[in-house]
Amino acid sequence: MRKSPWSKAVTLVLAFAMVCTSVLTVPQTAEAASKPKEMTLSAKERTLYVGKSFTLKVKSVKPAKASKAVTFKSSNTKVATVNAKGKVTGKKTGKATITATSTSNKKLKATCKITVRQQVEEIMVTNAARRRVVVPKGKALTLKTVVKPDNAADKGVEYIVRKPQIASVSANGKIRAKKYGSTRITLRSKDKQKKIIITAFVPKVRVKSIKLNATKKTLDVGRTFRLQPTVTPSKASVKMVTYQSSDPKIAYVSIGGNVRGVKPGKAVITATTLDGKKKAKCTITVNAVKVESVKVNPQVQEAIIGQQFTLNARISPSNATNQAVTWKSSNTEVVSITQAGVATAVGVGEAEVTATAKDGTGKVGKCKVTVLPEGGKLYIRTIKVTPSEKSLKVGESATLDAEVTLIDGTIVTEENKDKYAIRWISDNQQVAVVDSKTGRVTAVGVGKANINAVALDGSNEIGTCAVEVTAADLPTTPEVKLTEEKIKLQEGAVKELTWTVTPAGTPVTWHSNDDSVATVADGKVTAVKAGTAIITASVKGGNTASCEVDVISTKPEISLTEVEVNLQVGGSLSLKWSVNPAGTAVNWKSSDDAVASVANGVITAKAVGDAVITASVEDGNSVTCKVHVVPSQGGSSEIILIQEKLNLETGETATLKWSTKPEGALVTWKSSDNSVATVANGVITAKGKGTATITASLEDGTSVTCTVTVKDPKKQIILQNAKVSLQPGQTWTPQYTTNPPNAEVRWSVENAEIATVNETTGEITAVAAGTTTVMGTIDGGDPVTITVTVNGQQKPFIILAEEELNLSVGDRYQLTYEVSSEDVEVEWTSSDETKATVNGNGQIEAKAEGENVTITGRIVGGAEEDKVTCTVTIRPKQEETAPEISLQEASLKLLEGSEVTLNYKVTPEGAEVTWGGYDKDVVELVHGENGKVTIKAIGVGKTIINATVKDGNTVTCNVEVIGEKPPHIEITQTEISLRKGATAVLTWHVDPADTVVNWESNKETVAKVVKAEDRQVTIEAVGEGDATITGSMKGSDGKPIGNTVTCIVHVTEENVEITLEEEKLNLVAGMTWQLHWTTKPEGEKPVWTSDDPSVATVNEEGLITAVTNGNAVITGTIGDVSVKCTVEVTVPKISLSETAITLKLNQTEGFLLSAVVIPEELKEAIANGEAEIRWISASPNVATVERTEEDQRRAIILPTQLAENEGVDPERHVNITAAIYIKDQKEAAATAFCKVTIINEQNAVVEDDNNFIYKLDESAEGYKIQRGLQSYVVSKEDIAHDMAAVVRKMNEVTWDNNFLKNYWHRFNLDTLKQSKVLSKVFEMSGEPEIKDINATTKEITMRGRTIEVKRVDHANGSNLIITYKNSGRTINIEKIQAAKEGNNVVITAEIVAGGIHKDVKLVVSLDGKNATLYSVVSGKELAVATFAQADGSFEIKISQIYYYELLGMFETEDYLSSVKITNMYYKK
Predict the structure, then answer these.
(1) pTM of the entire structure?
(2) Which contacts qualify for 810-816: CB closer than 8 Å, 24 or more apart?
């Protein structure tokens, strides 16, 4: 090759430089210049954890002064990576080899074996609230520790206590409290990678109760409220409180009690004390933030036919809960609009597009759209407006006319004027307004205006009328006109009348002469019921217009699908029919019951012949169906089932399809396992995981089956929105549901520089402009992603696909690159333009032979680091035919885990091919013999594989790897111990269930697999030692798929022994017991089971929980060795030494009441604090009860003394309750009652409404009551309830015409008293003051409290109204409905008090005479009713009301202020 003059010059310069170098450089020794022959690294083996790093260095070389420069390479970059400086970083668990290669001696290498282990990343204590626990002195608590991740190499935890004198901690985390105080306990992972600190408190003063500053609170979405707890006693040692929301998606509560409304709904925030777990609750009602306004951008839009444009709706306020809108066009023939806001110009004209808020506020934003014809098609030449000038007075109107002349000179006629539309516009609407379509001008103010007729075809032609408006001479008389004079409507229909009024804007008054027939509001008429009504519209000082409205009744109607059917004798058919309104009764009739009968639409064929089936509705229509009955085909019966197998998820239903011979034969359905699937009439409902056989049988025994396999529902997250656009600093929480409900979701973000996400709540916070992905994951389910776009100025970026290129002189190559947006400008440069140039589009041209030419792409105006580079090597241009490669596969789609061999051809044969450019996390290339290249799909994603033949061309293959959930297997035990010769059974589960699992032992001389079937594998111990049993799965290609599981089997010659301390236990229901055992060899763990979990359960740690009366056997098993413990469970009982006592009001010595508890173990439990007896007084203002310090089973009862100004009652009553509470149980295990009567020794003297004096004396026989000269003796039993009973007894003897006898007795108020209504109203016993208000109303007063009793008579009986006048609280009975169910009449009603709604139900037997009203919620009786039957009607009259229970429904001590019970009737 001939050199150019420039080449000669360069050669001379280089030669001169070499001479200078040889003169200035100090000569090196021969040893320094030699290559290294031996090399040692700083480590030969190293173990590190995922994410951790260390630097590998060259420790020494021989000769000593040889170069230590090396290059590093990892054998598996997925396990460990290494950079140029030797920094090794663990990526995931596994093994890799780091190889160091001398740069001076390529044959010299040294290696370091790397083992990467998973370190402990998180330690959690599930029973330590905010990393704090409370342990009472002398008690113990075992910390429940969870170590994450599950694949951590060493999940062991060490416990270190700071102050062992306060509490000790065992190796398994069991804390024992020794003395009062607190201490820190450090939990450290045994791999030393993670530690946490918790604080243990041993309180001296225990918490007794907690109260919050609010029990109810209403918040708007996004608003906050701070809960303030008050813990008693104030000197409690540990006052710490934790908070929990029943639904954080509605109301979120922070650690400090700050509550934030998340979305509309109700949630309960529970505050729990760390000490004693005392609780207080606050109900949070979160209201939606309503939309205040909607603005559409743009508000005015012009478009050409066929053009599309997007409208945007801006919601105010920006934090409105529901920001969705409904888009609508006023004229879809002009503009159509999608619900995404994309509008399309359809036809010439105008339309209004509205965006209406979906949150129910009805707020609307509008855009006025004008659609013009296609450009260039200008049909209109001139528009002439007649008249061209017009004078009007304010209030006057005139219609203008426009003569439209087309470009060909023709004048638009009336028939085709719509084709050449114009629009009327006023240039001064304060003077004159004009109807845009009709040209009618109305003068509204003094002045001048031009009324323009504008062409809508794009010609911009305009015709004008100059209008001058002067003041009106005199006010015009208002006038209203109705377009319709008479209309017909069906019941329930609504129609808006058409009307005009002059002057415009004059108020119109609307009126209906019969609102029961039709109502009217602002011209909108609503039909109420059949009849005729006159609607009038009037204006003040003007006329009246009217419209007659004829309302037509809506009659019921029935329709029938079949009009003619054929049946065999003995067959049946269910007709398909519908009735409107729904629920209307249908009458069925056959013209010949001997041929075919009908009942509820089911036809039964009886004999050969024809019949007509008629279905009719009362006051409505009737329909018919012809039935042709033919002889039975005879022969053997047959049933055919379409589906033989079904796969369902729990909760799903499926309907089987079948046919029978003879047609219509009776089919009986049965499931082999109703816990898996049930069946009714061929409809299968999946109940639980498993397999069931559904059998369909005929009467003669013929049957078919369908196998139903039920799986648990796939866990999933259902997102409402998968995309969100935010401003920097703005937050947004995704709305989603999970299956199963309330499953835990963990959130993560791809790029935290653009947005961050709260791991638990999913709240996204926008950081900087850009787009990123937020991922939500659920255990065992597929993840979901949310695309988050943060608006604003995004930092520009450039991505270059090529990093290295091999070109030949003369080649041109277009670089592949991507920029962040179209407006990003890239400047391309070459480091040596004599070798290669690059143009502004990134196209390289190879000029001359050379290496390491750097092509650089920089963003114009960007930072220095915002650049990309590509290194180019240029070879001489080959005169002969360049090598060429061709690839058969241009694109591939592979399943994750699969592999495929590429088909390619190279000419000439044997030419060197370089493969690269692909993403090594997506695919792996394996090179085999004879140039074979295999692609292994290793990760989901897309990539491009480049194949470049040396000095030749490059071909590509686009590869997409898609994922599929691999099968997964789990086993119940991962380690077991066996004696030689013994067997054990492992239980395993695999998903999908039909996946084949292969089991094998790595040492069959120690343990071997005997049998594997029905999800169980049997292992036999052969010889002493350890063996690993492995379960694995293979695909159809014989290659491993999914995970593998292992179980380590320890086989010993010596016998396995279990020693259990407890052989028999007597436990109290609700209590627990920890079993104590030892094993030989040590450290073995039995598997614990109960033969009757309904009596006693046992967990894997051997903790027994007693449930109810009975006996259960608890068994602990290791291999074939087991131990047993018999547990006898007794339900606790309590009884009192007295069930009723009488105390005197003024006595100061208390009464000692004793409790007896059984069984005997309960006494011991009470003594050691595992149970307690609580004593409660139902009314402390009557008597108090206090437990003795030395014995919980004894309590002192004392009457409560009255203040001097309080009245004196002869008797007062209260119930004292003794209740057994088992530790950590919320409900009492057993209760006993003692009725306490407090009497006042003073005689009671009262006065009735007739001024008679009553005197009460105690005698041996009872109480002697004297009224004037008359007296009556009442036994103590008779007046055990209250003094009102005494008055009642006197009334029965002496007051023949008295109100109390006749009126109270008539309404059975005796029962009212016996239910202690008066005691509830007046709070104590005593004699009432009775006052006549009128003939039907009485007023009863006692102790300052008053009730009014009133009788209301009507045709069917009487109602009783009782009003409690002292309280503002009201209870009403509403929504009373009656219906017949079987042989009963069921009446339902709703009781409302203070905004609380409760359902009640009254069931009346038609055979009996009494009924009971009871609460649907609690089942408690609330009232008794009587029942009578006459003239086809049932009359149900409530006679007795248990007001005490009625009050109890609302959990309040407030008194009723107004209760009205009405008689209820049911018509047949």
Answers:
(1) 0.30
(2) 810/846, 810/877, 811/844, 811/845, 811/846, 811/874, 812/843, 812/844, 812/845, 812/846, 813/843, 813/844, 813/846, 814/841, 814/842, 814/843, 814/844, 815/842, 815/843, 815/844, 815/855, 815/857, 815/870
